[in-house]
Amino acid sequence: MLRLLAFVVSIAGFVSSSHSAGQYPPDSPAPNFFWATMSDADVHARIAAIVPEAVNQALTDEQRIMALRRWLTGFVMLGDQYTSSGIDHNQASLGEMMTIAQDRRAGFLCGAVAVMAQRVYRAFGFEAVTVNFGFPETAATHVTTLAKIRTGNGEIWSVQGAYFNAILRDRNGDLLDFFRFLELLSTGRRDEVVIAKAGDERHLMAYDRRQDIENVSAHFELQPELVERTANFDLYCVTWGMENVLRGIPAYGTSLKQALGTDDPLFLFLFPISTSGEAAAEKIAQAAVAARARLLTRLSPVSRN
Questions:
Q1: Buried b (16+ CB within 10 A) or exposed e, 152-164
Q2: Long-range pairs for 296-304 at CB < 8 Å and ≥24 separation?
Q3: Alpha-carbon distance 121 to 132, whole Å?
Q4: Which residues face 77 on adjacent strands?
Q5: pLDDT (tens digit, 9 = 90+) per residue, 126-146?
Q6: Helices marked H in 126-278 — which ranges?
Q7: Which of 29-38, 116-125, 164-173 holds the top average pLDDT?
Q8: Which of 140, 157, 229, 267 is the most exposed place for a label (fewest CB within 10 A)?
Q9: Residue 8 reports pLDDT greater than 50
Q10: Domain ranges (residues) in the chain
Q11: In three state form, how does the secondary structure of 85-110 look?
């Protein structure tokens, strides 16, 4: 996704307590713990020991998956074209991906993070899919994870991406079903959608020295604070969120304005590119295409007259 960014992001679990105290569950096992030799069942057991909320049946689905998402966001170091792992995340085992993330040998792009989240959620009993949204001819794409969650109003499909650790809610603070979200966008009720932050927005960024950190920081409103210099990266604590990052990449705003006349990054969800292939994922993508068609009809000069 963020091929235009020359840095790697990791979340507040790795940052000093002044930035993250009390914000996240314990984020990683001992540095010498080797996930790669483990089966998916063993990985599940290990995560359950680290994130006990995930197996606490007294909690709601929302609380359980939130604990998993926040832990995974804090565990994974994210990357760009210079610093990503290059691993084929569709072929690698979950244990192999966890080992790379833990050792901080490389970062992960949004596609790899989405697949990791999908596998983790599934391991804990959630139905989960991934969908790639955006404009494939540009860098303006983003892969995220959606999970089926039981709520007081029935089952819903909820955006549960670990890359930005943000979720969609309605104005009452309830999790927003993705199909309802599409309806709101297509009928001009974007103001009823809330991008809910999930804890501390100050995260750890591993900066690739081939880029100008000051220009990058100003462009994305990152507000960097140098934390550590390593052999490969300068590590900064930065502000990392869906809106400031996606709005900061020109390709997103340009593509959306050309298509819909807005640079609001939420409208990216009306442009599915590909899915993880399950029937539920295909249904989500088809609904997004239909919602986009309804919005375009609503915006057309003919419909206004």
A1: eeeebbbbbbbbb
A2: 296/260, 298/186, 298/187, 298/188, 299/260, 299/261
A3: 18
A4: 10
A5: 999 999 999 998 888 999 999
A6: 178-186, 213-220, 242-248, 250-260
A7: 116-125
A8: 229
A9: no
A10: 7-296
A11: CCCCCCCCCHHHHHHHHHHCCCEECH
259 half-sphere exposure, CB direction, 13 A CA radius? 21
Cβ neighbour number for residue 140 with a 10 Å cutoff: 24
Question: Helices (DSSP H) in the chain: which residue ranges?
Answer: 17-20, 40-50, 61-75, 94-103, 110-123, 178-186, 213-220, 242-248, 250-260, 279-299, 301-304
Largest CA distance in the chain: 67
Number of CB atoms found within 10 A of residue 283's CB: 14
pLDDT tens-digit readout, 180-203: 999 999 999 999 999 987 665 676
∠ CA 163-167-169, nearest 5°, is: 170
What is the length of the chain? 305
Distance CA 9, CA 91 (A): 23
Residue 148: both structure tokens together: 């089926």
Q: What are phi and psi of 86, to 5 degrees?
A: 75, 0
206 is written with which tokens?
């591993």
Asked if the model's pLDDT at residue 103 lies above 70, the reply is: yes
Determine the Cα angle at 54 with ends 73 and 151, to 5°. 95
CB distance 35 to 99 below 8 Å? yes
Residue percentage of the chain with pLDDT more than 70 = 78
In angstroms, the CA 48 to CA 71 distance is 11
Q: Identify the DSSP state of 6.
A: -
**Per mean pLDDT, which range of 21-25, 71-75, 82-86, 280-284 is the poorest?**
21-25
Q: What's the distance, CA 179 to chain centroid?
A: 19
